[in-house]
Amino acid sequence: MARVGLGLIGCGGIARSAHLPAMAQLADRVQLLATADTDPAAAAAAAAPWGAEHGTDFRVMLDRPDIAAVVVATPEYLHADQIEASAAAGKHVLCEKPMAPSLAEADRMIAACAAAGVHLLIGHSRRFTRRYMEIKAAIDRGEIGTVRLLRENERRPRMVPQIWWTPAHWTGNPQLCGGAPLINAIHEADLLRWFASAEPRTVTAEMNITIEGNVGVPDFISLTVAFVNGAIGSAEVLNCAPPGYPAFHQMELYGTSGAIRARDQELIGLTRFVPGGADYPGTYDMLLHNLPAYARELTELLDAMATGRPVCMPPAEARAALALALGAVQSARTGQPVTLSSGIAA
After folding, report:
1. SS3 for 81?
2. Of 35, 166, 189, 299, whose CB has the highest number of CB atoms within 10 Å?
3. Which of 236, 201, 152 is nearest to 338 (CA)?
4. Claim: this prediction has a pTM higher than 0.90
5. What pLDDT score does 190 carry?
6. C-beta of residue 32 within 8 angstroms of C-beta of residue 50
7. Rounded Cα–Cα distance for residues 135 and 191 (Å)
8. How far is CA 299 from the centre of its chain?
9. DSSP reduced 3-state for 182
């Protein structure tokens, strides 16, 4: 079977740690033919193992007929223009989350891909992470009855040195980055909807700036969601735990006849005790870079391309998660609950 030609737009951290390893794992099905990044060295480094073309203008790869799909691994404020151009060139798209900084841009992306007849898969990697896949399957089998309460906590240690959330990185620019509500809590927004199996009715949230050097981008958020079926969901994301703290997620669900808990700590195989206390080597990498999930994402796009069936997570689902996350931001800014609907605009 001929390998699918891919282009990679954006060769930064998430591309290096997740998408490029996933491509390598699926090298029997894909071939990376071109890379693009505003940093020419990053584009060249990503291309080198494949002998791929590389440059700073992503539009160059869109002219190549041997590239069938592109992986977009750039910051969200660039997504709409890049996806519209890719769709117009007839390329299928796997795009990193969050989908976009606004619903208007998300709608542009969806419309462009629909008009071009190409697939658009937004990379909500946790839908492709084994423990969350198992939770959804258990809910669908009715093993815990009707879901009534959901809670997801996400803890991340401060970096050494601190780069993210400061002016040294794009995530520290409030004109470009939506902060923890979009970069982190878009996952929680999606998982709460997915597991509640219902649409949110209202969201109430608080957010804050907790990291020294952060000049205006919220790096902490706590939110509570009331769903139309009566379920209540909550989530909390912090990025300011002390260095060496074990980064983790914890999901808890309580239903009418059972409960489920999934904790990253149970996956940790090593705790190191030193004079200053305990630390957990490698847990930050384990948390962020779940290679099987990214390989499953790419496989999903490839299978949809091969069969013509829709992707398992339609872009409307990613849009709905974005609407919830943006509603949380609005609530935090106004100090009031926000009523949500499928037609919410931002």
Report:
1. helix
2. 189
3. 201
4. yes
5. 97
6. yes
7. 10
8. 17
9. helix
